[in-house]
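User: structure tokens for this one?
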Amino acid sequence: MRKLKQNYIYLLLIPFVLCLVSVYGLKLFFAAPLFAAGCLAARKIRRYRLVQKDYEFSYFQVTTYLEQLLCSYRRLGHAGKALEDCALLFEEGTPMNAALGQAKHILLTGEGVIDGSLLDAAFSSIEQAFDSRRMRIIHRFIANSERTGAESGRSADILLEDLELWKNRTRIFQHKKRFIRIECGVAAVLAMILCYVSRLLTPEELGFDLAESLIYQISTVCVLLLFLVLIVTICKKLTGSWLDEKGIPDEKERERLHKSYRMLRGKASPLSRHMAKRILSRYVRQEFPYWLLLTTLYLQSESSYQAIRYSAGECDGVLRLELERLLEEIYDSPRSLEPYLDFFSSLSIPEVQSGMKILYSVHANGYEESKKQLDFLVAQNNRLMDKSESYRYSNVLAGMSMLKQLPMIISCLKLLVDLVNLLAITMGSFQSMHW
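Assistant:
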């Protein structure tokens, strides 16, 4: 049945291509390359749609699992029982059900665990199936609570609130992507209509049709093929994971970040420092909220210094280098505010400076006297997370929005070529009449 449906789509392309050939006045033999390109484009678009459905399904599985995991752990206070609750929500054969089954198997048998915690190994088996930063943060929080026996109610509430805000942001982002897909489709249809206008420009008095020109034939076929390439490219760009994956920078990007960090901490020309600040500011604005969330969770059961130390162990890159430098300065001057204020101070990011001041307040006053500051820190981190992810989403959407302008630009260029071609044919026609 599925294969019949695929062939049905290809059969529909035959009258569509023949209609295009007739409307644009193309030679019949041009129908073959247009049909072949249409079949290839339809195959790729269908594949991207299936991949997008898989991404969406994975996202809903992850969010459902994380919500239930936090709620069950908050209620039961036991990670194994919380995983059993989660397993009841997913049907057999789904990826999450298989991942949870493997996790429970590891907890019961200890299979494959040589050195380390059973719970960490169980959580790791789930993380291998689903790449999500929040999943890793929640898993680390639960594993740490199991080891220390710390009270987890407030931390679970923080994570549930962050999870809900992330779901809202993702829903808005995906809705905008769907709207862009519709806009691109409308733009392509309007561009094709504009390309047809050039056929109407030939005066009847001249006694010939512009479509008979070889330049018109070749340019029209090229433009139609280019439209197919653009549609496939747009579908590819709009296809992407719904999860909050942590993009691992390649070797070149890591080297660029480390080089910028060295420039910032050492001596460099004003222009080099300016470029280094721009590169690092973008990186820090993206990574700082996730680190602050981890630190806030550890603060529920640890001192400020230990919370920073534990969270630094789960970071990498230049952020970890700066955190290690911060820990050394705190160790040397435990009561001083300067180490906190010096954290990426040259970047002059207000949100970072504000967060570090609150961390110092918690460090100086202690947890019991700093509950209000912690509540403010949680609220501020939610704003930071929203700003960081919204900024990343807006950058993605901006690039996609540019694509929808390309069909109209191409059609305008095609119309210009046809006008020049028509002018050349008309001038040649007048010269023949004069002769």
